[in-house]
Design goal:
By secondary structure, the protein is of the alpha+beta class. Helices cover about 25% and strands about 25% of the residues. The chain has a single domain, classed as Alpha-Beta Complex (Creatine Amidinohydrolase). It is built from 4 helices and 15 strands. A hairpin with a 6-residue loop joins strand 11 and strand 12. Helix 1 packs antiparallel against helix 2 and helix 3 runs antiparallel to helix 4. Bound molecules: 2-amino-4-trifluoromethylsulfanyl-butyric acid and cobalt (II) ion (2 copies).
């Protein structure tokens, strides 16, 4: 499948939607506190996105019933906001995808609710670092497999965590999920070569224990097979002439 190379004008639109998605995470952070429901986080993000003349991409996407994904503790991804109340010690991923002027921006972050365990904090730290090690592999003529290899070597090789294989990063632009698929495991020197103007996400899901997942009866919520913790962070990336640009970067966000 051919990979779309974005024009200058399209790149400007990807920058705008990426910036908005990042702003949603900045906006919601102060509300991620013990006692809040995930429905309230969803409603606040939904309203913020709509007020900025954009559309929350998850809403009604393949039947998804809410505007954001909220994935707590053992939830790997695609958690559905609802009546669940956040409690001290939870870790939660909030995943935002905006559609602005027809283009998608996709980013997620982990939030620590109150004081969390040392093992939860360590998992989140390694997840963020693994994503950044993957991002740093992005450059023209390098290969997609270099990204997954960097993530896996660190998260699994150095830390012994499970790297989820059932869900991948993805090409993104006018379409939410398109080629190329960006695996978070792999071998260097394999896969397609990157080219300037490609845009895709890097969004590793890192598990404390087994990499294996199962889907709950709601048809969406992916959880770890062993019930142990999972963490994820995500950015939308542009391949530039000499490396990469993180389209969903925020001031004060962790970076490497
Ligand atoms: N934002 C998710 C991703 O990173 C996809 C969510 S699709 C939904 O690709 F339908 F679950 F919302
Ligand atoms: Co994504
Ligand atoms: Co996402």
């Amino acid at each position: 499948m051919a990979i779309h190379i974005h024009s200058k004008a399209e790149i400007d639109k990807m920058r705008a939607t990426g910036r908005l998605a990042a702003q949603v995470l900045e906006f919601i952070e102060p509300f991620v506190k013990p006692g809040v429901t995930t429905d309230e986080l969803d409603r606040r993000c939904h309203d913020f996105i709509v007020e900025h003349d954009a559309i929350p991409a998850p809403l009604n996407y393949k039947g998804f019933p809410r505007s954001i994904c909220t994935s707590i503790n053992e939830v790997v991804c695609h958690g559905i906001p609802g009546s669940r109340t956040l409690a001290e010690g939870d870790i939660i991923n909030i995943d935002i995808t905006t559609i602005l002027h027809g283009f998608h921006g996709d980013t997620s972050e982990m939030f620590l609710v109150g004081e969390v365990s040392d093992r939860a904090r360590a998992l989140v730290d390694v997840t963020r670092r693994s994503m950044w090690l993957g991002i740093k592999e992005v450059a023209p003529r390098k290969r997609i497999g270099d990204i997954g290899a960097a993530i896996q070597d660190f998260a699994q090789g150095e830390h012994g965590y499970g790297v989820v294989e059932a869900f991948c990063g993805h090409g993104i632009g006018r379409v939410f999920h398109t080629a190329p698929q960006i695996a978070h495991t792999g071998r260097r020197g394999t896969g397609m070569r990157m080219k300037p103007g490609m845009t895709f996400t890097i969004e590793p899901m890192i598990n404390e224990g087994t990499h294996e997942c199962k889907i709950l009866d709601d048809g969406w919520t992916a959880v770890t097979l062993d019930g142990r913790l999972s963490a994820q962070t995500e950015h939308t990336i542009l391949v530039t002439e000499d490396g990469y640009e993180v389209l969903t970067m925020r001031d004060n966000a962790f970076s490497m």
